């Protein structure tokens, strides 16, 4: 089954009993048992729910893994994955991971004695240098936010296999439509499904796919013990969103490519970060491991004041955090998502005051171009 078909026909579809073509929303907490200890696959909805299960089967198939799990948010998913480790274990992370992941790891998880290093994983030798005899996992994001840095998934997976490390990939930016880390050797793939998978800025959710029975048992044990599950309504909403992931990602791809070409012709714009550009660092690696470049672009408009002017004057780009929605979104990382990083460190990372990040949506590309231009030249 090809990806676009899999989005519609994958996982569990419809309802056998009634012929309903959409999976029913099982708004239920508990299930009648036929006898003590005798149930029909479901006992209690924290442990398992049929609507959630349909979604979990779907993401499992889309990522080509062994088992899927649905959580109440991307952060709940990441928390559960980290809780499969124990005190004293050491994990190496991509240094510009999602801000919420950095906060969770540096301020919450470390309270329980888990140790973490943050390194630039776009150079695999940095991972090797950070290894200790207690390192148990490598956690990578590619492309990253907001500079779209690329990490070579195959190379990291070879390193991880050699050292017996669990290789975890946050695949939120590429989605399973464009990139499948398990095929490249990852053990765990996770998503903030709040972004492209949901796609309509109307649901907060997290998804996990693991590649082995052992990991599946461990993650389900943590999920059932800690309880950060996704409810049936949101599970249904997410499946509805995923059905159109293919056409959304294709359209976003062509809109984004056109928007980048438009930016390249504007003298005010410098430093365009987009993995589709040949000059982008890691371009070749990204092309070898992903089938598309996604809808994220970062670029410099010259100054913080100019960035502020653009943001105040655009009409079709919504000023908001988040990404991956039908509507185009715009943000200034230095003032928003990365404001808590000290100025010196931000400069070092290339997150200048004039850096603008956009998540291209499904509007008519000519409207997006015209709108951006009037805001830039006001
Ligand atoms: C948004 C995001 C998260 C966190 O997900 P939530 O659904 O907001 O909890 C994690 N990783 C990446 C890359 C994200 O963009």
TrEMBL record:
Family annotation (NCBIfam families): PRK07671.1
The source's superkingdom equals: Bacteria
What cofactors does this protein use? pyridoxal 5'-phosphate
One cellular-component annotation, GO: cytoplasm
Keywords recorded for this protein, A-Z: Lyase, Pyridoxal phosphate
Which CDD domains does UniProt cross-reference here? CGS_like (cd00614)
Ranked from the top, the taxonomy reads:
Bacteria, Bacillati, Bacillota, Bacilli, Bacillales
PANTHER family named among the record's database cross-references? CYSTATHIONINE GAMMA-LYASE, TRANS-SULFURATION ENZYME FAMILY MEMBER
Q: Which InterPro entries match?
A: Cys/Met-Metab_PyrdxlP-dep_enz (IPR000277), Cys_met_metab_PP (IPR054542), PyrdxlP-dep_Trfase (IPR015424), PyrdxlP-dep_Trfase_major (IPR015421), PyrdxlP-dep_Trfase_small (IPR015422)
**Entry GO MF terms:** cystathionine gamma-lyase activity; cystathionine gamma-synthase activity; pyridoxal phosphate binding
Modified positions (N6-(pyridoxal phosphate)lysine) are: 195
Instruction: Please provide the Gene Ontology terms (biological process) for this protein.
Output: cysteine biosynthetic process via cystathionine; methionine biosynthetic process; transsulfuration
Query: Of which family is this protein a member?
Result: Belongs to the trans-sulfuration enzymes family.
**Protein name (Swiss-Prot/TrEMBL):** Bifunctional cystathionine gamma-lyase/homocysteine desulfhydrase
UniProt keyword annotation of Lyase present: yes
Task: Cite the Pfam families for this sequence.
Answer: Cys_Met_Meta_PP (PF01053)
């Amino acid at each position: 089954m090809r990806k676009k078909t899999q989005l519609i026909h994958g996982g569990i579809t419809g309802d056998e009993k009634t012929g309903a073509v959409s999976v029913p929303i099982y708004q239920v907490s508990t299930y009648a048992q036929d006898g003590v200890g005798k149930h029909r696959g479901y006992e209690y909805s924290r442990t398992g729910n049929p609507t959630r299960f349909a979604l979990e089967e779907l993401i499992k198939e889309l990522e080509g893994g062994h088992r899927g799990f649905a959580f109440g948010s991307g952060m709940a998913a990441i928390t559960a994955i980290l809780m499969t480790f124990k005190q004293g274990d050491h994990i190496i992370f991509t240094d510009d991971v999602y801000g919420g992941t950095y906060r969770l790891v540096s301020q919450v998880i470390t309270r329980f004695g888990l140790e973490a290093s943050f390194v630039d994983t776009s150079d695999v030798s940095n991972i090797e240098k950070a290894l200790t005899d207690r390192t148990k996992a490598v956690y990578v994001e590619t492309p990253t936010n907001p500079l779209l840095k690329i990490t070579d998934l195959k190379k990291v997976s070879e390193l991880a296999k050699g050292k017996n490390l669990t290789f975890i990939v946050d695949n939120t930016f590429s989605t399973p439509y464009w990139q499948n880390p398990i095929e490249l050797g990852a053990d765990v793939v996770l998503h903030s499904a709040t972004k492209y998978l949901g796609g309509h800025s109307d649901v907060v959710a997290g998804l996990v796919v693991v590649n082995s029975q052992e990991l599946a048992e461990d993650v389900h044990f943590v999920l059932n013990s800690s309880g950060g599950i996704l409810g049936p309504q949101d599970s249904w909403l997410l499946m509805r969103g995923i059905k159109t992931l293919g056409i959304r990602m294709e359209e976003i791809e062509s809109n984004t490519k056109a928007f980048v070409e438009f930016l390249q012709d504007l003298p005010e714009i410098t430093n365009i970060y987009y993995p589709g550009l040949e000059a982008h660092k890691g371009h070749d690696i990204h092309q070898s491991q992903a089938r598309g470049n996604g809808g994220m672009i970062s670029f410099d408009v010259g100054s913080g004041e100019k960035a502020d002017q653009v943001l105040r004057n655009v009409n079709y780009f919504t000023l908001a955090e988040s990404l991956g929605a039908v509507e185009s979104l715009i943000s200034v990382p230095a003032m928003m998502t990365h404001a808590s990083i000290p100025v010196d460190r931000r400069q070092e990372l290339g997150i200048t005051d004039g850096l603008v990040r956009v998540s291209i949506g499904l509007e008519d590309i000519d409207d997006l171009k015209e709108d951006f231009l009037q805001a830039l030249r006001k």
